[in-house]
Amino acid sequence: EGLLEKDRRDNRNIGMHGASHILGRVPGGGPVTLLTHCNTGTLATAGYGTALGVVRALHQRGSLSRVFCTETRPYNQGSRLSALELRHDGVPVTIIADSAAAATMRERGVQAVVVGADRVAANGDVANKIGTFQLAVAAHHLGIPFYVAAPSSTCDPTLASGRLIPIEERPGTELTHLGGVLLADPEVDVWNPAFDVTPHELITGGIITEWGVFAPSGLCRAL
């Protein structure tokens, strides 16, 4: 019960710090349009969420215009879970295909990208759901701040960089089949990593924790 309450409190602090930091960088102070990836909300945490906690905090302040959720293939956590949560809470949300993310950033006025993290290395490299790295690359190219929202417990100072983070590889059938229906050549080679690593230099907004927003390279030292 104590851990449950701590997680909820930490998530609300993440949301508060993230919302304030994002609004502080937006001319006029908002409202803002965000893009997020995978599920980082109530269904992924003990309640409220990390990246979705930032979304919720902005919405509660009346400072959120819209959030775009990637579908997050191959398990569609964005379309099945994140969009469901946000619709339930009355948050303006739009689902996009993973392959539409860069175009959405450029054409639909995205002002910040906010994602979660499964692990943060000592130098600030971040492991998260596959597809995060390419979002960071697109955001960097377009000059859009890229944020990672995660509790301080996610930081692993024993790993010098993200290259040392083990990456799970999932069964190829997750890509070649849908609902038991074969969609590809049954003998085709498949590479299906569950996560990727985003280099710290692409996390241009910062890493949002329950203690505040940190530069990636200084997070583990600060904590």
UniProtKB/TrEMBL annotation:
Q: Where in the cell is it found?
A: Cytoplasm; Nucleus
Give one GO biological process term: L-methionine salvage from methylthioadenosine
Q: Does the keyword Isomerase apply?
A: yes
Keywords attached to this entry? Amino-acid biosynthesis, Cytoplasm, Isomerase, Methionine biosynthesis, Nucleus
Q: Which GO terms describe its cellular component?
A: cytoplasm; nucleus
GO molecular-function annotation terms? S-methyl-5-thioribose-1-phosphate isomerase activity
Query: Which named protein is this?
Result: MTNA isomerase
What is the source species? Cnemophilus loriae
